[in-house]
Write a structure and sequence with these properties.
- There is one protein chain.
- The protein is mainly alpha-helical.
- The protein folds into 3 domains: 41 residues, no CATH class; 61 residues; 57 residues.
- It is 73% helix and 9% strand.
- The chain has a 3-stranded antiparallel sheet.
- Strand 1 and strand 2 form a beta hairpin.
- The longest helix is centred in the middle third of the chain and has 105 residues.
Length: 197
């Protein structure tokens, strides 16, 4: 505003130059004023450039801070998503472990029940001394007396070999179990047993 006022005064001063009275003094005074006005404009121009440069630097600083904050926010959001994903996996794993634990607890309870039943059965067996369990040797001797078959235990696993000591003659037994059905072999062996006691 002051600059415009000064310009107006210079303009009026120039008009007054037309008046010949004291013209030289007025011209010098007006030129001095014009010089001060130009200096003021130059200083204002310098100040304006300086302020614009400072504002530009501030804007760049603010823009860089915004970029940095945005990158930090994205990094934090990425970490948060990772934590949420891990939390979801952990929750699912925990649910699975809880289900497994429940099943194991149920199985343990069933095993404990079975152990109680077994203990009870063992106690009953201990109390009942009339129960006689025949030994394997006794069963083998009984089987040999009934069937009258003497087995060859040194042959191949797929071969059934032995001697049947029948009422009149001894008869060899030799089968390849891969060539005959189990039913055929069983029927054949039972037919060798003498049914007359």
């Amino acid at each position: 505003m002051a600059v415009f006022r000064d310009m107006e005064e210079v303009s009026q001063g120039l008009l007054s130059l037309l008046n010949p009275n004291r013209a030289g003094t007025r011209v010098r005074r007006l030129l001095g004023r014009q010089e001060r006005m130009i200096e003021g404009l130059l200083n204002t121009n310098k100040d304006t450039h300086r302020l614009l440069s400072e504002m530009l630097a501030i804007e760049q600083d603010v823009a860089q801070k915004l970029i940095d904050e945005k990158e930090t926010a994205q990094h934090v959001e990425s970490k948060l998503q990772k934590f949420e994903s891990e939390l979801q996996k952990t929750s699912e794993k925990d649910a699975t472990l809880q289900a497994d634990l429940h099943l194991l607890a149920k199985e343990l309870e069933e095993l404990q029940e079975m152990e109680r039943d077994l203990t009870k059965t063992e106690e009953e067996v201990d109390e009942d001394t009339t129960v006689v369990i025949p030994s394997a040797v006794y069963m083998s001797q009984l089987y040999h007396r009934v069937s009258k078959i003497e087995w060859d235990y040194e042959c191949e696993p797929t071969v059934i070999k032995g001697i049947h000591h029948g009422p009149s003659i001894a008869q060899p037994i030799h089968f390849d179990s891969t060539q005959h059905s189990k039913k055929f072999i069983s029927d054949y062996l039972w037919n060798l047993v003498d049914t007359q006691w």
